[in-house]
Amino acid sequence: MSLVAIETTELTKVYSSSFGKRKVEALSGLNLRISGGSIFGFLGPNGAGKTTLVKLLLGIIFPTSGSAKILGGEINDYKVKSKIGYLPENHKYPAYLTGGEVLDFFGKLSGLNGLELNKKIDEMLELVQMTKWKKTKVKNYSKGMMQRLGLAQAMINDPDLIFLDEPTDGVDPLGRKDIRDILIELKNRNKTIFLNSHLLSEVEMITDRVGILNKGKLLREGTVKELTEKKEEYKISVEGTIENLPDDIKHGAKFENIGGGYYSFKVEDTQGLNRILDQLRNNGIIIKEMVQQKNSLEDMFISLIKEAESNANAFTKESVK
Amino acid sequence: MRNLWIMTWYTLREAMARKVFIFFLIISLLVLVITGLLFGLASNVTLGAGGGMSLENPITHIEMMIVAPLAGLCLLLAIFSSSSFVPVMLEKGNIDLLLSKPVSRDQLLWGKFLGGILVVFLNIAFLILGIWLIISFKFNYWDFHFLYIILTVTFTFTVLYSLIVLMGVITKGSTLGMMLAYFIFIILSPLFYVAKYQMGAFLENKMVKQVVEVFYYIIPKTSELMGKVTEYLVTGKGIDDYQPVLTSLAFLILTMGIAISIFRKKDF
Question: How far is B114 from chain A (nearest CA, A)?
Fold first, then answer.
């Protein structure tokens, strides 16, 4: 498998209204490099351009400018898709087909046939726990069953790169856990997974790297750890109160009461942290618990989007002046 | 080629899942049963080459009397039921999946086009072959020219279907394509045929005459294909004038060419 699964260079997509009067930049000069064998989570509010990127990479829509490669091949070469799987957000299967027939149809279109395809269909249905529904028409499937079938469809050709748009949408918690386990298993088999999801906690659990997109622009990209850690910020729980202690004991650190008997504070470095802890103990403060502060992906995501929005508003006001 | 066949085959399956095609099959079956009963109850005369008199025309006329209105009905039903093949393929969630597979856009559209034609061909063939077999057995007269109807009806449908496909690609809906196909089949084609060949002498205004000429050649000649061309082929005279066939074929090639070219560049 290629070392770089996805590579985009200044990829831009502008949608125009019928008469070209109104233009919307859905994706703006995106540069992205995703290594093979990893799970990449793509986050962003509605309308950020996440689905636009996936559609561009799969040749469902065409770029206005820029270029992109998937698995080393140009995106306009349809043959490169033989090693790609895709689960769209609102997938639709022909209602007159059974689950098994849906997999047969898409398996054939992916180049499989005969015994190999039949074996693969059974294997995939078993993997997503849908074997007993193989001969049931998809019009009778629930949302969760459709998602499971969609996942099986996306994996039928044993792809090296899988695009999943909200794969756990409509699936119950146990089913979600099953899907997460499947994705981790795929990653262990050196497959690359590109995951679009609104469920940030889920993305946090399984992704190696995360990209955050807003209004067509990539705001941040990195590992979950890089994006969520708060350097040298700690949370402490003590018996008694810290607020009334003199500043020299606190070594200039500002303790903020965050409720529930907890205080948060920042230090310069580890030595500074130890100095403060020694002083607190020497002054009879009993430390019950201390943890390094960490943002959840959701906290980080919300603050980043808010920051981007306020910057954009400030820029607009400045332009008006 | 393999992908083309897969798309064609699944279009056939889609058609079979629709009630209109089942309805047409039931009507065809009913017509065959009634025809069989009528000719079964008729006096048992053996007609044909050995009968001492040429009954070629009467038999062909009997066949045509049964088939002509049915062929028209078949075309109307075929236009109605096939008009949604392309729009359904282009629905969100469906086209995304198809385009994510290693299949070219040309193969997808040609597959839908050929699938639609195959469906209508099979329906027409079932009806025409059935009637032909019943009457041929009854009179022991085997007129193979009669089977040309299968080709002329299928070709007429193909020409109109190319327009339905083009409109489907442009609008992602079935209504406009279906309306245009009906408009050409029921009104425009017969109208311009009459205007050119039967009213030509009465049209004094040169400009009106030119407009009639231009429109006559642009619009597919469905009324001539289903009328004069079919009649000449069935009666064994052969086609005396290829113009209606060739101009209709040119229309088909042009509309499919435009449809493919738009489909190749369209965002979904």
Answer: 17
Q: With an 8 Å Cβ cutoff, is B265 touching chain A?
A: yes
Chain A partners of B261 at a C-beta cutoff of 8 Å? none
Count of alpha carbons within 13 angstroms of residue A171, beta-carbon side: 24
CB pairs under 8 A between A and B: 75
Nearest CB to B3 within list A88, A94, A109:
A109
**Architecture of the A230-294 domain:** 2-Layer Sandwich (3.30)
What lies within 8 Å, CB to CB, of B208 at 6+ separation is none
Model ipTM? 0.81
A17: left (phi over 0), alpha (psi -120 to 50) or beta: beta
Domain A4-215 - what CATH class?
Answer: alpha beta
Within 8 A of A104 by CB-CB distance, chain B residues are: none
Cα–Cα dist B65/B201, whole Å? 32
Q: Is the pTM of this model over 0.95?
A: no
**Are the beta carbons of A62 and B267 separated by less than 8 Å?**
yes
Q: How confident is the model at residue B51 (pLDDT cuts 50, 70, 90)?
A: very low
**Phi/psi-derived region of residue B142, left when phi > 0, alpha when psi is between -120 and 50, beta in every other case:** beta
pLDDT, chain A, mean: 86
Kindly tell me if the per-residue pLDDT of B242 is higher than 80.
yes
- CB of B205 within 8 Å of a chain A CB? The answer is no
Q: For residue A211, what pLDDT band results from cuts at 50, 70 and 90? A: very high
- Dihedral sign, Cα of residue B41, residue B44, residue B46, residue B52: negative
pLDDT digits (tens, 9 = 90+) for A96-140: 899 999 999 999 999 998 899 999 999 999 988 899 999 999 999
pLDDT at A228 over 60: yes
User: Residue A307's pLDDT is what?
Assistant: 80
**Domain residue extents for chain A:** 4-215, 230-294
Residue type, A50: K
Among A94, A105, A111, beta carbon nearest to B102 = A111
Q: Do A109 and B94 touch (CB under 8 A)?
A: no
How confident is the model over B123-145, as pLDDT tens digits?
A: 889 988 998 898 888 878 788 88
CB < 8 Å to A138, chain B:
none
| Every domain of chain B and the residues it spans | 2-265
